[in-house]
Design goal:
25% strand, 2 domains, 5-stranded mixed sheet, 12 strands, Phosphoribosyl-aminoimidazole Synthetase, Chain A, domain 2, 309 residues, alpha+beta
């Protein structure tokens, strides 16, 4: 085992031989959009992204389905699975089976297996002091999802959120391999700050985040200000605890977005300063809102520092 669960990485890595390892992950969640087909698409990308976040190549998937036998039109499940299948096909991932459970709470996702060169793994533990931290996609999908459920998110905001979630991580994985990135993760349920915190702890560094530079889905800040938060806001704050320092002048509503759980979020990538601009230019070919949002520092008192400057 080359990467296990001890560093809170996106996927596990198991070496088969000197030049080949497998990458394995699993992820599933409740509906976050009204359209079942789109929900299936997003669920597939959310699962595949975990392999791409390690700079691996996804190959096969097993579907995980929780759906009620009674009370909900089974055609909805068909639409969910068609959306997922279309996405798997698009990115060359073969569905080889799965498992379903009779459940009143609908949930859907995949266990995904891929391959990776053991010498080219990107992980939480690969960040070094001085590295620039890049985020590939804007945040805010959690508050938008809550806004959808409460009928408070406009069509334009919903469309922007869906577009963000539907932007695949394969191009980021290609760039990470090209630039030999060693430190990376994707931003999902533990939010931008939670996943940055995991990177900082695994790498024994402090990560400085400049919130003014973090890209945000248009309309998400307004939803956060209006209190459209998920339960993850509270649990993510509890997860990090006191191991974070936030400047008093930082907008409290912006901080809410930093704690906002994401679905199919962007990649957090650490790269040396001399290569950061080149990597950012490469990423912006497919992620136009990719941005340098901070830097890794020598380990200090806190794992995360949110700086107003």
């Amino acid at each position: 085992m080359l990467v296990g669960f001890d560093k809170a990485d996106d996927a596990g890595v198991y070496r088969l031989r000197d030049d080949l390892a497998i990458v394995q992950t699993v992820d599933f969640f409740t509906p976050i959009v009204d359209d079942p087909f789109v929900y299936g698409q997003i669920a597939a990308l959310n699962s595949i992204n975990d392999v791409w976040a390690m700079a691996g190549t996804p190959l096969t998937a097993l579907a995980i389905t929780c759906f009620p036998k009674k009370g909900v039109d089974p055609a909805i499940l068909g639409d969910i699975m068609r959306g997922g299948q279309e996405t798997l096909n698009k990115y060359g991932v073969t569905l080889i089976g799965g498992h379903s459970v009779d459940s009143e709470q609908i949930m859907f996702g995949y266990a995904v297996t891929g391959v990776i060169d053991p010498g080219k793994i990107a992980s939480n533990a690969g960040v070094r002091p001085g590295d620039v931290i890049i985020l590939t996609k804007p945040i805010g999908t959690g508050v938008v999802s809550t806004g959808i459920k409460l009928g408070k998110a406009s069509d334009d905001v919903v469309a922007a959120s869906v577009e963000t979630m539907m932007t695949a991580g394969n191009f980021a994985a290609e760039a990470m391999r090209e630039f030999q990135v060693k430190g990376a993760t994707d931003v999902t349920g533990f939010a931008l700050i939670g996943h940055a915190w995991e990177m900082a702890r695994a790498s024994n560094v402090t990560i400085l985040v400049e919130p003014a530079k973090v890209p945000i889905i248009e309309g998400a800040l307004e939803l956060a200000t209006a209190g459209m938060l998920t339960s993850g806001d509270k649990t993510n704050r509890e997860y990090i605890g006191e191991d974070i320092k936030i400047d008093d002048v930082v907008d409290k509503n912006l901080v809410k977005l930093l704690y906002d759980p994401q679905t199919a979020g962007g990649m957090l990538i650490a790269i040396s300063p001399d290569r950061a601009d080149d990597l950012l230019g490469r990423l912006r070919e497919n992620y136009p809102r990719a941005q340098k949002i901070g830097q890794a520092l020598a380990r200090g008192e806190h794992s995360i520092v949110i700086n107003s400057v």
